[in-house]
Amino acid sequence: MDDRLPDGFAVRLDPRVRRRDGGLSLLGGSPLRLLRLAPKAHRLLAGNRLVVRDGATAGLARRLLDAGIAHPDLPPAEASPADVTVVVPIKDRPRELARLLAALRSDPATAGLPVVVVDDGSAVPVHADGVTVLRHDVARGPAAARNAGARAARTPEVAFLDSDCVPRPGWLAALVPHLADPALAMVAPRIVGLPGGGWLHAYDAVAGALDMGERPAPVRPLSGVSYVPSAALLCRRSALGLAGGADGGGFDDGGFDEAMRVAEDVDLVWRLTAAGWRVRYEPAAEVAHEHPTGTAEWVRRRAFYGTGAALLAARHGALVAPLVIAPDVAAAALFAVGGGRTGRAAATGLLALRAVRLARRLTRPGEWPPVALAAALT
Q: I need a labelling partner for 20 at 20 to 30 A (CA). Which of 160, 197, 282, 365 fits?
């Protein structure tokens, strides 16, 4: 895989990044890291934005992107019917499908795109004008439906949209430029709720299971954004065929694991990143999703999502850990909570020792250890 960023590709430092040592060190990313720049790299990154012009700037931009210290800074670009096919998996949702197709047709940026609808065993077969309809007589699950749609596409890129989604204007134009990065397998928009009322709507607006937040990010295990939902994705078709599986094999033009009825999106992201591909989250693009409105339905949906943890653990082991904590930090927390005055003193000592060790790691030759910074990070 050639991962050199093309000339003209631009990245901008995350606003949360802290510069140290006159800009020679950058502190940020997820997980948090300190990136030291060589003098030449420091000169190339004079401001907060870097435009790729040659091999040196391409290498620096890639390093900043992979560290999560910078994000692509690209103008919107329209999708061409020769480049993108919309794939919609569906089962028994005729009203939602009609709403989605109407939204696509009413947006000039997507009105001319080819659309493949995969009917995954609906009780009443799907019929829709102006689109290609594929049918599974027996339901095989959303992963199989997406794979079938990807195989039927004749474009290098596919945009997966679930039938209960309504893309907002400009969503695809914000995603398409990311695929100028030849190492990017897929990019996901922000999933927001359709307008509504009630406490469930208010809760999902701030803590929705599908909403990855308002900040752009690289997507990889054990980071701030460790997966993106398959409700809406823009994918490079060739990457789906190169993701590989647990047995080392590949997939024919469609990489969702068809044995998984839940968490297949998380699994695909993790296999892609393990194979060397990049995945990104771009909240400037928004797709609205019809969240459950009843309490019982909402609980069932959350419980169903939770069943994917065991499947992921069987395939990816420790990547599924809900919490990753250093042993000394865990010990300090236990001492502080249950050890009384003596325990709190022990916790303080452990954290102080950790801060000293971190300060030594952050120290540049000929400088005093940055104890205050290390203490703040601890």
A: 282
* Residues contacting residue 83 through CB under 8 Å, at least 6 positions apart: 155, 156, 157, 176
* CB atoms near residue 215 (< 10 Å): 15
Supply 337's token pair: 């909570």
Question: What are the φ/ψ torsions at residue 363 (nearest 5 degrees)?
Answer: -70, 130
Q: What is the DSSP string of 165-219?
A: EEEPTTHHHHHGGGGGSTTEEEEEEEEEEPS--SHHHHHHHHH-SS---SS-EE-
CB atoms within 10 A of CB 343: 15
Question: What are the structural domains, with CATH classification, of the chain?
Answer: 10-72 (no CATH), 84-320 (3.90.550.10), 327-377 (no CATH)
pLDDT in tens, 188-232: 999 999 887 778 888 888 888 899 999 999 999 999 999 999 999
The tens digit of pLDDT for each residue in 128-168 reads 999 999 999 999 999 999 999 999 999 999 999 999 999 99
Residue 182 pLDDT:
97
Annotate 12-32 with DSSP letters as a single string: EE-TT-EEEGGGTEEEETTTT
For β-strands 70-72 and 10-13, DSSP reports them as antiparallel
Q: 111: buried, middle or exposed (CB in 10 Å: 19+, 13-18, 0-12)?
A: exposed
The continuous run of DSSP H or E covering 160 comes out as strand 157-161
* Cα 115 from Cα 88, distance rounded (Å): 8
This model's pTM is above 0.85: yes
- Rounded CA gap, 274 and 91, in Å? 31
Residue ranges of the chain whose pLDDT lies below 50: 242-254
pLDDT of residue 288: 96
Distance CA 238, CA 156 (A): 7
CA distance 378 to 355: 6
Q: Which residues pair with 136 in a beta bridge?
A: 120
